[in-house]
Amino acid sequence: MRAPRPQGVVTRGTTSPNRLRAMDRWIAHWLGPLLREADDPLVVDLGYGASPVTVLELRSRLAAIRPDLRVVGLEIDPERVASAQSAARPPLLEFRRGGFELAGLRPTVARAANVLRQYDEAAVAGAWQTIVGALAPGGALVEGTCDELGRLAAWVSVDAVGPRSLTLAARLNQLDRPATLAERLPKALIHHNVPGEGVHALLGALDSGWAAAAPYAAFGPRQRWQRAVASILESGWPVLDRPARWRLGEVTVAWSAVAPGGPVTARS
């Protein structure tokens, strides 16, 4: 049976070691139970770029959840697929040609990092729908962006119902202020960082909390970030995680709070 024709366009392909570490550990924590219970614990890394390094890292980090977990890296560019074959370790780690249709695979989890950022915003909903439609029942997509070294990142989790959450993540020892994360918002949100939109209000609330927590800087950036996140939770933002995740430089909020055009119900 022939694999379906790849859907999408070739990305720039830039990548580097540990660029997606924050996203990997989020997947392990939030989607770990899903992978543990899956009959076929398959994960697809879509659009891994010119180097397969982040696919290898994803497989290594998720192996702690299930040693039999399989990861398939997908790329539209056949030359990238060919050059990655030396790193393949079938059946646990493979590289194939494919796009949003996921090459006919039915993974439990799909990751698309720094892929849709290169598309028009109008293409995002369709891409999400295509990817999620190719997942195994109950599966999830993690889609987002980060800077070249993984210091700033943001991603959305999406399932058959639609987008569920937004996560912001930063290397706290290099963070000047939370508003800097606006540079790395996913394509679905980056053009909505304007007054009157939820994501703008969220970044503003974090910035205010960060400024108010300046005295905590004496105890390190983790303490300051934790206090900033605690302040938005106290003011009504639907924060889904707790201090153990905040210490890692993360915060995850319900998508309903930042959905484009949605009501801004929380107060910064």
Tell me what you see in this structure:
The chain has 268 residues and is α/β, with parallel strands linked by helices. It has two domains: 21-170, Rossmann fold; 174-237, no CATH class. 30% of the residues lie in helices and 19% in strands. The chain is built from nine helices and eight strands. It has helices at residues 21-30, 32-37, 53-62, 78-84, 124-133, 187-190, 198-212, 221-234, 243-246, and strands at 42-46, 70-75, 93-97, 109-113, 140-146, 152-159, 162-170, 250-254. An eight-stranded mixed beta sheet has the order 3-2-1-4-5-6-7-8, with helices on both faces. Helix 1 (21-30) packs parallel to helix 3. It is globular and about 60 Å long.
- Assign the CATH topology of the largest domain: Rossmann fold
State the helix count. 9
H/E order of the elements? HHEHEHEEHEEEHHHHE
**Uncertain parts:** none
CATH superfamily of the largest domain: Vaccinia Virus protein VP39
- Kindly report the average pLDDT value: 95
The share of residues in extended strands comes to: 15-25%
Structural class, from secondary structure content? alpha/beta
Indicate the CATH architecture of the largest domain.
Answer: 3-Layer(aba) Sandwich
The rounded Rg comes to 18 Å
Q: Strand count, sense and closure of the main sheet? A: 8 strands, mixed
Helix content range: 25-40%
Strand order of the largest sheet: 3-2-1-4-5-6-7-8
CATH class of the largest domain: Alpha Beta
Count of beta strands: 8
Shape: globular
N-C termini distance: 54 Å
Number of domains as seen in the coordinates: 2
